[in-house]
Design brief:
Blueprint (H helix, E strand, L loop, with lengths): L5 E4 L19 H10 L4 E6 L11 H7 E7 L6 H7 L6 E5 L2 E2 L4 E8 L4 H8 L7 E2 L2 H12 L3 H6 L1 E9 L1 H7 L7 E4 L5 H5 L9 E5 L5 H13 L2 E5 L3 E6 L1 E2 L3
Parallel strand pairs: 1-13, 2-3, 2-9, 3-4, 5-8, 9-10
Antiparallel strand pairs: 6-7, 6-8, 10-12, 11-12
Organism: Rhabdonatronobacter sediminivivens
Pfam families: Methyltransf_21 (PF05050)
Keywords: Methyltransferase, Transferase
Length: about 250
Amino acid sequence: MTGFADSRKNRPADTRSPSKETDASAPSALDVAIASLATRGKLRFVQVGANDGKLEDPIHHHVLAHGAEALLIEPQPWLIAALRDNYAAFRGKLMIENIAIGPDHGTLSLHTLKRAFWDDYTARDGRSPTILFSPDRDLLRRRIARRMKVDIDEAERRLDTIDVPMAPLSDVLARHGMTDIDVLQVDCEGWDVKVILSLGEVRPAVIHFESLSLSDADRQAFSDWSRQNGYGCIQGWKDTLAIRGLSHPA
């Protein structure tokens, strides 16, 4: 399927001073974009950072409703069984990869909260500790300190590290024959742009990713890439929606 064409002016990805949406009952821009694509037929979804398939997941219901194929990529090995279970109702072609996505082939060191502190984290923050999984150790250390109300040194003590096989997204897509995809969803705790830049020649119609924790360099890299490849962007307080075919301001 092809991307959108629209004459509206849309600014490129920019996370400066975003504001939170206030009407939780209203459909999001992502919901509208996917629903629009789905009027043309079943869709091909790719998700990087799929977690368990439901936790804070903006596309799970869309995959079940509109998916012909879904490639779900999650580097945390302890989540793969739950991920598969949470897509048991999916009637399309389901592919799951336990791998990290990055610029090269090799190994990626990913940091997480030690299991001994999982219950305490959930009690304090109300969320699953499996959302704390990132190659950015400093980002994770600051989040743990803030959410668990401990100092930075104690947050550092609570970190664990695992090494995960890594490959560019372009190679994983090629392995599964997913070179023409409709929706790419990315949530990789500050690593999102590196995932997108590893697409190679693949250009999804819609890309949705968490942009709240991006470095300035990654923000600029995505802004440049999106302009060069014909994407217009809608900026939320936490996420960016990029749609191919939307026009940028002159």
